[in-house]
Amino acid sequence: MKKNLAVIALAGLICAPVSATTLNVYNWSEYLPQSLIERFTKETGIKVNYATFESNETMYAKLKLLDGKGYDIVVPSTYYVSKLAEDNLLHPLDKTQIAAFSDLDPTILNQSFDLNNQYSLPYMWGSTALGYNSDVIDGSQLTGWKDLWNPEFAGQLILTDDVRDVMGMALILGGYDVNSQDPQQLEQAYQKLVTLKPAVTVFNSDAPHVPLITGEVNVGMQWNGTAYRAQQENPAIKFVYPQEGAIFWMDNIVIPREAENKAAAYAFINFLMKPENQATLVQEIGYAAPNLKALAHLPNEIRNSEIIFPPTQVKEKGQFLGSVGSAVSLYERYWMELKK
């Protein structure tokens, strides 16, 4: 998932490890503050070679092509952890080398896509819900996913460029599980989306808040972190958890099986999991981080933000994205058809 920060490498670059003192990181764009990269190098002497991707599909194809080589840290979303593990591309984590493991939020550990966190640790987690410009859109008209089909929103609507988000929304509207593998349910969800497609101005998962800030669109899907950042630039941007239930996801840290600098990878994980560094991630990127001790390092306005930290009732009503098994091919087929 995702997620305006400096990036040190060309997106999509296939990197080979430079030396034993270089850590090769493959992450979403705009998803790691430059200040943390510089701090890590200053503290450890390990240089960071940082490359980015714009979708899980791109990341997965690259790792398959490289057979798990070329990177030491990768940040896939929930359901792609299990996919990479099934392909034997991941290194089983040694929890004894992760100092802050006991401080991580237990409610987001041991997910179905990686039981007992054998291969992954939470990096950041967030939600997909609704964002709108209140200078243009009447908020009383936007309470749930169903409202995106309002004809008044045609031509000013954004959806994330993410098959699981978009299909998940349609599945929720049908009363189904966001991780449905039922062909009939997926067909119904696709047909529902076909009726929305003519109203969509843009699909964007690179920086979905940007079209909202610039006025290219005024309403649609947003991740909570991008909505938070949009509000910093334009307070008229609002974020709404849909009454039918939000979609929750998690991005995760993994070490590829063939990573050449595993010791540096563990050093980076331990650095990122320090409470003060977790707090930097939250403040600069706008998503919740897993180390509960980070809360003590956050100002009240962020600690109490319902955009970054959804209320309990919102979490209880929402659904977490997980693996869809072999049904992934159906999702991809419908996605290609929808975006034609």
UniProtKB/TrEMBL annotation:
Organism lineage string: Bacteria, Pseudomonadati, Pseudomonadota, Gammaproteobacteria, Vibrionales
Keywords carried by this UniProt record: Periplasm, Signal, Transport
Functional summary from the UniProt entry: Required for the activity of the bacterial periplasmic transport system of putrescine.
GO molecular function: polyamine binding
Subcellular compartments: Periplasm
Stretch forming the signal peptide: 1-20
GO terms under biological process: polyamine transport
Gene3D superfamilies on file: Periplasmic binding protein-like II
InterPro entries reported in the protein's UniProt record: SBP, Sperm_putr-bd
Family, per entry: Belongs to the bacterial solute-binding protein PotD/PotF family.
Protein name: Putrescine-binding periplasmic protein
